[in-house]
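Hello, quick one for you while I still have it in my head. My current little project is about how a certain protein chain folds up. You're getting the sequence in one-letter code plus the fold written as tokens. Would you mind checking whether the tokens look sensible for this chain? Here's the protein in full, and shout if anything looks odd to you:
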Amino acid sequence: MKNFTNRYMLLYSLGLAAVVALLLTVVATGLKSRQQANVANEKKQQLLATIGVECERDGVDGVYSKYFKQELNVAQDGEEPLTLYLYEKDGQNGYVIPTTGNGLWGKIYANIALADDLNTITGITFSHDSETPGLGAEITSEAFCNQFIGKQILDNGGNVVSVAVVKHADPSDPHQVDAISGGTMTSNGVSAMLIDELKRYQDYISSQRKEANDEQ
């Protein structure tokens, strides 16, 4: 049997490690591009679901481009630009505003579809990282989301007041929906997220509504 020196064994091990590292890098790079594409497609599916359009991941690009006309990044002084999406469905224009907040155990998210008046909610979808199944995770349910349709985010003066998630909401109040039973902390997180995030769009909403009124 051939005897190998320590130096040979060391160089062999280093060479093998380098080859394995190179292969892992190639695989990771390939997977990363695929993962990024999957994330982008999932995002498009969520936006479409917010305006009531369901589609499979395959072919999502075509469906998305049919409804969503533009992604806007609205500049803010000294802050990150605000993102919103312009869509057209059934001859009506609207906006989708993405929001991020904190639930009980982690991040929660919402896409809020607004009519052309930038006030009336026409659809909403929620997602989360780690809320409790059967409790806080119920924010993703159709029953919870449907409560928001027709609600309004502005008061009579055009100021953002959002929609609060509360116990025993008044059905006639355009700024209230019922909280999740057993999911108080997540419900509170949704309320805080919506008011905090939507208020950031106050200047844009006011300017767009003023421009629309001036054109009438």
About this structure: Residues 69-215 form one domain.
